[in-house]
Structure formats: C-alpha cells, structure tokens
Amino acid sequence: MSFFAARTSQLRVRGHHDSSRVTFVELFFDLVFVFAVTQLSHGLLAHLSLAGLAQMTVLLIAVWWSWINAAWVTNWLDPARPAVRMMLFALMLAGLVFAAAIPKAFEDRAGAMAVAYVSMHLVRDLTMLWSLNRHDAVNFRNFVRISLWHLAAAPVWLIGSQAEPALRLELWVLAAAIETVAPVAGYWVPWMGRSTTSDWAVAGNHMAERCGLFIIIALGESILITGATFAELTWNSETIAAFLTAFVGSVALWAVYFNIGAERASRQIETSSDPGRLARSGYTFMHLPIVAGIIVIAVGDELVLHHPGGHVELPALAALVGGPALYLFGNLIFKRLSAPNLPLSHLIGLGLLVLTIPASFYGTPVALSVTTTAILIVVAVWEWLSLRRRNEA
Questions:
Q1: Is the CATH number 1.20.1410 carried by domain 204-392?
Q2: Closest CA to 43 of 248, 302, 254
Q3: Residue 352 — pLDDT band, cuts 50, 70, 90?
C-alpha cells in the first residue's frame, strides 16, 4: 500500500515551544460538540426514564469517541496542513449531522446518525493511514489495528439503526462496548498482536489542554441552558434563587476541575516516561464520567428552574444528586493519577451527597440544589486550602 501515502509528512514537528499548541482550527472543530452536548442534555430532559437514560448514555459514549479520537489524531497530525484541515472540516460536517440526529436517534433519524458516525471513523482513519504510511511505521501499524476495530463496530451501528428501538439500543450498546474495550485490549488483532502505550508518542500538554477545553465546552453548555431557560421564565424569588444556584454551581464545577487536577495532571503527563498510558487512562476514559456529570447537572438545573418549589420528584433527585456524584467520582479517579492517594475532599463530598437523598424528601427542589451546590463548594475550597497548606509547609 505504499501508493496510498502522503508524499510529504503531515505530522506535527516536535521540539519547538509551540509545536504542541492547540490551534484555532481545532477550536473551530470543537464548536460542533457544543451543539452535540446541548443535544444530549435536551434529549435526556425529554426522556426522563431509565430507557431514556440508557439511550442518552450510549449516544454520549458515541459523542465522546467522536471527539477524543479526533483529539488523538490532531495530537499527531499538523492542523496547519491543508489535508488535515480538510479532514477536520469533513468531520465537522458529519458531526453536525450526527448531533442534529441525536434527539430522534431512536426514532426516524437513526440511519442518518449511524451513517454520520461511521463516516467520521472512516474519514479519520483513512486520513491517518494515508498520513502515517512511509512516515511513521510504528503508528501506521497501530492505526491499521484501530481501523480494523472500527470496521468491526461499524456494521453493528448500521444494522442497529434499522432495528426496532429496543433491539437498536442493545445493538448500539454492543457497538459502543466494542469501541470502548478496544483501547484496553491494545487494539489486539490476530497475527498483528496488540499496541502498547509506549508506542503512542503523545504530546502530553496538547492532550491535557484539549480535554480541559472540552470540559469548558460542557460547562458552557450548562451555562447556556441555564441562561436560556431563565430568560423565558417569570422572574420571582424562587426562579432567581434557582438561577443563582445554578451559576454558582457552574463556578464550583470549574474550580473542582481546574484549581488543582488539570494543571497537576498536565505536568505529570508532560514528564512521564509513558505518556500514552496516562493519555489513555486519564484523558480517554476518566474524563467521560466528568462530562456525563456536567450534562446531568445541567438537566437538574433546568428542572429546578421550571419547578423550584413543591416536592422533589425522582427525576430531579437523580439529576441533582447523581450529576454531582458522577462529576466528583470522575475527578476523584482522574486526580488519583497524579497524587499518592484519593482526594479526601472528594470522598467526603460523595458521602455528603448520599446523605442528601433521605433529606430531600423534606425539602424543595431549589433547597436540594442549594445543598448539592454547597457540597461542591466545600470540596473545591477544602482541596484548595489543603494544597496551599502543603505548599507552605
């Protein structure tokens, strides 16, 4: 296949001070995923049931793989190259169709969603194979393995799109599982063996910055929903309290992630002898519950804005407690990569969230929202104070 190869290298040139910076075209590419995250939260809000949660979870995994795989690709390829930019624009178009189909992915737009999603894999993998052939033999073999795993999952996505909704969910769970297990298995292929993380030459600061920016995207979507919902409501004491609580909660979420964990992990992956392992575990996998937590919290904020008073219904309880719990759990395991122990503040925060469940039966939705936000603030401040004392010692 030597004929299927770029004549000139499309790879980033390592070694310069800005060789691993996030480029403007990558930020432009991310705009599609602002829309995708919004579609997920709206989809979950419209289907507040176990079935709806299962459906949105599968679609969230697909959205995440669409984005994180592109982040890995631009970690290696130079977005300044015209061919790489054209790949990103093609991925944006397919991603926009994919995101637009999310609300009706289990209705009449399943085919469009599946074709768009599979097309993103196809375009990205073919571009990588074309770019790596004759220029990076080790990574070329890695992407042959990766492409074969994506090809194995593709028919399941496509067949699932033509099945009845219940069977579709089962098939798409299988397809998502194939793609999720693949990195853990090292993309093992018969006669080719498996990839090892030491083979993945990763620019750690680029990966850390890209994932940090995705967290900003998710937080931005949460603020967007809060502002748009508040603008349409009657402004009274309860809705104003719910609005202020949602905003303060977003600030607390930002502080929990960016105060310590993001910078510390960035330094660790940059100096690691095996950055591929950290990029796979810390950024490819451990950021998924963090993003999921933000989406669920956004749903909870909108529920409280619409119904701040009265009893706490089960969907609101699940969102207001489950969202922060997911977020803290994701941060807990992510920060453990760059610390000797699990952060005590996060463990205490998870324990306090559990205690809010029985207490919620005696309060209103806005009171529960205030309580869970206060817990997030306690976690953020506790962690900040503990690090400051450690630095002063």
A1: yes
A2: 302
A3: very high
